[in-house]
């Protein structure tokens, strides 16, 4: 397949015909470009089934009125290709470049290589579940890296580590106005039962910007483990029952190990009971490994997340029969998370901040690049080692490294239980006050960057009324 090159857009003033949009047998969209020379060029685009803009839509009719033609002019092509990156910038026949990430032959080319056009994976997913939604917009807002919070009397707030406490989250949202900017540092899921509900609410508010604050959502290690787990499910063809097998075996092994440390009669009895369960679970566990070809890394990621990090509620809400309404919303949630930032520089009222869930990058070159470009890094742009360090590690030296470049790091991840921790010498503000851990001092902290004030909210898992959007 031939792909269109960036310079050809300008040189040939490409036009896009209504008749040249079609689906292949895998429900993959192709767009055929009509060149001024009469030649055609084809590009495969990946988008959710049915979401590619129809040419009898109000938007197309408006463009027809403006330009008076049944062929879309290069104005629209620029929006479709130039701003969204739908071109093969590297000149390879089997790739297109979409929003900063390469896609190869129907595979999403980040760490997971999730198959799009095959029929593998859990049955309630369809084959293009993880194809990213293509949204054609007149103009993308790329001005998010510089904020003057005094504009229109709005303020910039930061929260993190909500951990499924939907009631606490809604209490904070009640305090936000449409003039405010709220930065969420990840870990909104797991531990509590409202994680998926929080993500759904954030996505709705971002769509309805007029009556809601500007929201910048960033990934935490729990969202990372969610993405890794769902990707493994698709890649290996796992079902909900397979996750339960992994959970049962890990819990039994943990309990057996715990009671093995004690010699009293009661512990010995419990040890024997868990040993019997472990032997049974081991049989199913080994069958699953042999059948699906699961690696130790995949088993560890899923096992730790589902049990120790209490991700089971999140994944069961996400899968069929849970809170999520079918594959369309599953795709939207996955795409929203995969397209989120891991680290983001912001200049707020003349001061440079670096927002990240746990740690600034270990690589000083990445910090230098963010300082110069004022652009952050999204999950899909990073290697596993890079995003894992920033989302999970505890290395205080990277705070000081970021400070050397003029950044104050604002992060979460490490619970302080009851209050945030500010260290001007090392250059960080840690705002995880323990929400979701369900301890006596557990709070959800709301930190205002403009005035340095902090509000604390009690853990509240659910609410009876829905918040207004």
How would you explain this protein's 3D organization?
The chain contains 14 helices and 18 strands. It has 469 residues and is an alpha/beta fold. It folds into 3 domains: 6-108, no CATH class; 148-219 and 340-458, 4-Layer Sandwich (Purple Acid Phosphatase, chain A, domain 2); 224-332, no CATH class. The strands form 4 sheets. A 6-stranded mixed sheet has the order 7-11-12-14-16-15. A 5-stranded mixed sheet has the order 10-9-8-17-18, with helices on one face. A 3-stranded antiparallel sheet has the order 1-2-3, covered by helices on one side. The longest helix has 28 residues, at 265-292. The chain is globular.
